[in-house]
Amino acid sequence: MATDHREPLHSTTTDNIPPTTKPTKKAARTIEETYQKKTQLEHILLRPDTYIGSIEKHEQTLWVWENDQMVKRPISYVPGLYKIFDEILVNAADNKQRDPKMDSVKVNIDVGNNLISVYNNGDGIPVEIHQEEKVYVPELIFGHLLTSSNYDDSIKKTTGGRNGYGAKLANIFSTEFTIETADGKRNRRYKQVFTNNMGKKLEPTITKCKNSENWTMVSFKPDLSKFGMECLEDDVVALMKKRVVDLAGCLGKSVKVELDGKRVPPKTFEDYVKLYLQPSTDTLRIYEKVNERWEICVSIADGHFEQVSFVNNIATIKGGTHVDYITNQIANHLVTVVKKQNKHANLKAHNVKNYLWVFVNALIDNPAFDSQTKETLTIKQSSFGSTCELSPEFLKKVAKSDIVKRVVSWVQFKQQNDLKKTDGNKRGKLNIPKLEEANFAATNNSDNCTLILTEGDSAKALAMSGLSVVGQDYYGVFPLRGKLLNVREASPKQLQENAEIQNIKKILGLQHGKIYDNVKSLRYGHLMIMADQDHDGSHIKGLLINFLHSFWPSLLKVPEFVLEFITPIVKATNKKTKNVISFYTMPEYEAWKENLGHKAREYKIKYYKGLGTSNGKEGAEYFADLEKHKKDFVWADDEDGDAIELAFSKKKIEARKNWLRALQAGTFFDSKEKHIPYRDFINKELILFSMADLQRSIPSMVDGLKPGQRKILFCAFKKPIFQEVKVAQFSGYVSEHSAYHHGEQSLVSTIIGMAQNFIGSNNINLFYPSGQFGTRQMGGKDHASGRYIYTKLSPITRHLFHKADELLLNYLNEDGQSIEPTWFIPIIPMVLVNGSEGIGTGWSSFIPNYNPRDIIANLKRLLNGEQMVPMDPWYKWFKGTIQKTTSKDTGYTTVGVFEENEDNNSLNITELPIRRWTQEYKEFLEAASLSGKDKEPFIEEYNAHNDDTTVHFEVVMTANQMNKAKEEGLLKKFKLTTTLSTSNMHLFDANGVIKKYDTPEQILEDFFHLRLDYYEKRKNALLHELGKASLQLENKVRFIREVVEGTLVVSNRKKADLCAELKVKGYTPLPKEAVLEASIAGAVDHVEGSEETEEGSEEETAEMAVEEQKPSAGTASKTIPGTEYDYLLSMAIGTLTYEKMQQLWHERDTKKAEFDELTNTPSKSLWLRDLDSLNNQLDEQDKRDAKDEAERRKQQEKARAKGPGGGRNARKPARKAVTKKPSATSAVVIEPMDTSANDVPVPKPRGKAAGQKKAPAKGKGKATLVDEDDDEIPSLAERMAQQNLHSVQDGEIVELEDRLAKHNIESSPDQEEVPKKKAPAKRPAAAKKKATTIISDDENEEDIDLSDDSDFEVLVAPPEEKKKGGRKPAAAKPPAAAATKKRGAAAGAAAKTSKQTGGQKLITEVLKPVVEASPEKKVRKMRPSPFNKKSGSVLNKKGEEEKEEDEMVVGESSGEVGAKARPQRANRKKMTYVISDSEEEDEEVDDEASEDSDFDDDE
Fold first, then answer.
1. Which of 6, 139, 1087, 1342 has the largest count of CB atoms under 10 Å?
2. Terminal CA-CA length for the chain
3. Domain segments of the chain as ranges
4. Could you list the active site residues?
């Protein structure tokens, strides 16, 4: 059988391809020809690239050894030839690992003879026959494939050989290969020669040698034909020599490496690195020998990463995991360093690597590579067999090197390039929303065009009104959306994503990084800023100037490029001549008003804080006189730039603090100046914003409040809100009455914050939280919307802020409106009680909470001249501990509570540290129980048993997890500690100067001296008031006596003559004090001494005398001419009686007794008395809290007893006011009519009920109606069953009247009057209804409060005494109480009476008609305003006093309705019922209905 002829194998693929010839038709290939099997040797020769790499020539730039130095140049070499040389070289180096005594490696490259030899004097190869393979070991190693001593991976070796190819590849690709070795142990010398690509081998020659003789030498002649070469070329030889030098650097001092009989220079790895980095003072070279296995050196690369690395003496020219291990440590550290310098740097580790040149020499256990060429190490870091943690000193040296500068420079360059993407240019029209382009913008006339940047759309509308005058050819308008970004420290990403900045750049045509000498290349030649004339408007101007100075400072130097358009802040219009005077700053207006004095009343004042206040006509007027309103900013020198940087750079914090400290009162910029230097704008205008921002953020030491909180408390006292009011409505009231200029949502948040009382919030909440005000679950962020929750003043608040101190406060004035004081003066420093936190311009502040009882105790010590006891932070309800930090004196550590259960390796966490919220902690435990990438869970599971007030987590772990947690520390591992610092306690002192306090005792001491001084002032003020009241009463008694006796005639005389006679007779003149303020457009408070006040009753005049003692700050307070004796002449005729004279004389004696008692009471005693009262209130609160907690636990136990559904989820009940035992003082509750059979019929009086409504007798208590939550009020039938109203005897009522004459229902010593209510409108009669009256015996004021926020209130209007006949006077009925909302005309006398009684009737007068009331009542539904203190205009006061005023009602029963029902309004909650006992209703209805507004002006 004939066999096919097989062509000899060649070492390249191309050689095995037959030459291209003209295709000839031949038979198809057989199966045997198609599918072939090769021997290993044949395969290596056929596919050499698999084993030694390419055998083609490559052009590459590499380091080579030439002329005894390292040179990097392009070379041409064959990777396969280089690889077989490297395999023999690495084998020689590996022998150092087997025999540490080896100290010589000799390499000879004989180019002429094409002979390479490598010699080492380590232990020789065992010259012995292998028992299994039956050949000598040297032949086995070098002449048989897949033989190696490195196959046992259980033995950790740091050699280069691994796969059993190595030296055999050099044999295969050589024409001649000789192995020689001396085995001193066996005294044998071995030599064997292989030829023909390891195809032939000669028999080994074995001779004897000495015991001390150990060496191995491999000599080979590469088969150059297989590498496409005729001889060893220079480039290849230079590369091989470089590899010998590598070996010298890796082996170090212990091995002498020779090349062609000459020792190569590097003796250490550090010396080796120097061959690459030329020795120079500027050359960076940071070397560290981390341990015996790792040597590292770092230098700077020029924009792309470089590395020279070795693994077990193998040159890993492409790096690998060992290089990544080192570079990642360096790069990550440098990323942190660079981000500290440029926190907005978008920098990753690979960006830093581009500037690193890393040298690594490592010994790795059993290394694995990507291929037999061993160019890349692939073994995982965890399998290295060693670690290489770079030392902090090494990293610090790297961080201080020029590498960081290079990286920062690259970051800045990249940022600049990114910003250039949003550049503008001078081109045609732009399509930007809301932009009104100038017609000549981006044309040859663009340098004459002005872009007007306005503060919001409303200001744009004003500017557009102005364009009607100047036209739109040269003026463009673009509205800004609020405040511009402070670009000085903004990240490039922020700048790129900020639409406002991009639009401004495009509209102006600004190009990033360009220096402008003129504006020819811009789309507009001028930039005019049109902002409000308030502090925020100044900030907007400053931010725009800062924007230009940060990127285009040259533009600020261009004359008239930056302009501002100013508008009046106040306009004064003469009421007669209609002349208008405009003021552009508040100091100018104040000076003008002060100079005018009383003549200021001749002007009507209107404030223009916002541009939106001006109308279109005024806008046209402004632009018509453009030169007057246009100001241009001018650049003088670099001091202007320094001023801008001072105001906006975060690097100038300390300088900015000094800048704010140097602010002088009364600083403002003169608006008459045409040119504004940038430094003057910063130092005279912008500084005012910075100070205002600081004041909004840092509280006062005196009252512990920020301005927003102070406004809220001021309005709570002014209203006052002793009854619940909806938070959203209250915020509107605050905004209206305190000149609050910010969003109402922030006001709502502040109110909620002042009412919160969970752990970590307030120790004493000044407002009562009725509803969901937030819990410790989310740190208060889980509160409900202000539309759904209610609040009122907490009972303790008036014990902290005494009403008598209000006479001493310095009330501010804004927009002509008297607003909150500079600060309140509580009896203890509230900033320590509730703590504070805030960040403002230049300063931040944090003050922890302290125990109010500790504060009271220390104040008492100071009052007694004793030393204070140091105080530690304290948080109400907190069950953990607060410990002083041992490392520093200014810190505390709050520690939660946990219990360890060793039996089941679990923790019971029952308290979290301060300000670590439950939901946040739950998420932490959730993450701790999950596994992730490079993260093992450290707990098995957890169970939560929390509620809104308590914490209970049960954490389950394995024994191993528990042990690890204990080693780290349970507190630390489970984040059960937080820190409180007292090193940043900044507050405004009493003089408004920012001050740092080191200890809470320093705050207490400052407060003590101020508060003691104000107690003395309070005493003097009260003595003055008592003296004045006593004098007034004496004059009144004398006046009444002389009028009664006829010695003084007051009727039918001119007032001037009468006043002159009173003066002659020696009556004391007591003129009214009035604020000298012009008529203010939109002002809430009326000017005292108005017509309405002058016509008031005698009692009102007395009250006004007290109120007039509180002039507003910043306004001239003088007396009103002609009012010296109004306190006498305004007395009602009904007071000119003997009984009234006796009453006034008795009151005079009482005032004198009070005066004498107060005179003999030291100021310190007053303070001690208040402190004792506060202590009692705290005790009462603790009792209520303890009772609530006991009730909550009882509910929990009850729920647990019921099984599933109960337990820890039971909610804590709302705290209720303490109900005392029945007493003489009772309150009347009128409930909505119930048509059930349980109603008790009430007897109907005979005859028509008529008569005038009278004010209750002076001195009687005021009836305050009770308002309780629906869920706290028993059913009507139950209460009627409990209180048999009709069993009250006449004698008991008389006794009750006597007791009520001595007691005031409003038991709080400091409670203000209930707001005045409007008289009810008259309506036609309707179906009659039964009345049910409930008497409450609770004296506690908290139980008799009526929610002022309710849509309807319940008031009683009993029948009045008839003019003729009927029942005897004893059975006469008292006047009806005024309703809270007018629908028609006011009820004359009732409106007057409501001023004295606050719209409520004495309880005795209400009780009388109940006994003999009509069984058929007439009821009308009323909807009062929650803030309507002034119930409406008082019409026909004198005439209506004599009218019959029966209340007209709308029936609620199933009977006929006498009048057409009003359409039902949506969202009604509560209803007010006005009950009348008269059978017939007056049919007169006043057509003038009062305005249906929920927010009428006060007074």
1. 139
2. 131
3. 1-265, 268-420, 426-567+608-692, 698-835, 885-923+944-981, 1002-1078+1089-1161, 1220-1499
4. 788
